[in-house]
Amino acid sequence: MEILQITGVALIATFLALIVKEQKPNFAFLLIVFTGSAIFLFLVDQIYQIISMIQKLAANAKVNLVYVETILKIIGIAYIAEFAAQITKDAGQGAIASKIELGGKILILAMAIPILTVMIETIIRLIPG
Amino acid sequence: MDFIKEWITNIIIFILLATVLDMLLPNSSFQKYTKIVTGLILIAIILSPVMKLFTSDFESAIASMGQFHSLEDENIKNSIEFQKKEIQASQHAYILETMAVQLKTAAEEELMEQQGMEIANIELEVNDQDQRPFPENLEYVIVHVKKAEDEGETVAVVREVEIDTNAPLPSKQTSQNTDQISSLLSEKWNVPEKSIQIMIEGGSDEHGQ
């Protein structure tokens, strides 16, 4: 039961942080950041399983792997950006977190550029000149 | 029929994967953007038969999806390619040189004994358009023959011996001497004699005194 492990670690960290906060606010803060990172690391394993499942399905269905790869890349970018943004937000750096999110969005959009160019070219050729 | 089947499975699987992606996505801040991209890809898949008709490089454009290559990468690639070519050229020259040396040593003694000639220089010409590996794509061998110097004179009669492995050329000047040399060389170098052509330049005094 992974959910029990996650919640257990999170609750213990919360109580410890509350206790330590009165003595050493810095350490409490660091403890929270590290716990968040640890939970994310724990989740990465599960995400990997989901992604490998999708890859296996796509390979079995004999579909064009390019589309599947693009989708997996989008998932990867979204998750990495999300984790990093959350950790930076926990650390109280909202500005950097928003920059990370912006970077993720732009990289996801950049994937669509080749498709867009091909479509636009096709449309231009379809129009009788 | 096969094509249609593949096309439809592509569409279906992609839609399923797109829904999984929507479920997997962490929060709503990314969803707008991923929806745009997945929608575009879906349109591309649905229109792919039309695209293949009207654009030549549809496949390559799809394949380059999600790969960001910068100018720097191109430069590095170019420089690597250039260095590869240089290395290959130098190796090529080295191979030709060593081969020429080996040919010379193989035929030197007998040529000296039988004809009183010595090989001054051997040039190997390779056909660059030929895709086969080195020994097969040899075009011709130019052998510069001169009289042996131990006869007490420094005559530098230079002959060009052309060995054409592709087609026999009409020989301009043949003599007993060149026939003997060519037969000797063909025996030594395993080149069929009928494809050996010997051209003599300024060869009026070829028989020696």
Task: Write a concise keyword list for the protein shown above.
heterodimer, A: mainly alpha, 5 helices, 89% helix, B: alpha+beta, 4-stranded antiparallel beta sheet, 6 helices, 4 strands, elongated
- Computed Rg of chain B: 33 Å
Major interchain interface with per-chain residue totals: A-B, 40 and 39 residues
**Beta strand % of chain A:** under 5%
Please outline the major beta sheet of chain A: none
Distance between the termini of chain B: 85 Å
Tell me how many strands of chain A there are. 0
Uncertain parts of chain B = 170-174, 204-209
Average pLDDT rating of chain A: 86
Overall pLDDT score of chain B: 73
Write the H/E string of chain B, N to C. Answer: HHHHHEEEHE
- The class by helix and strand makeup of chain A works out as mainly alpha
Strand percentage of chain B: 5-15%
Helical content of chain A stands at: over 70%
Order of helices and strands of chain A: HHHHH
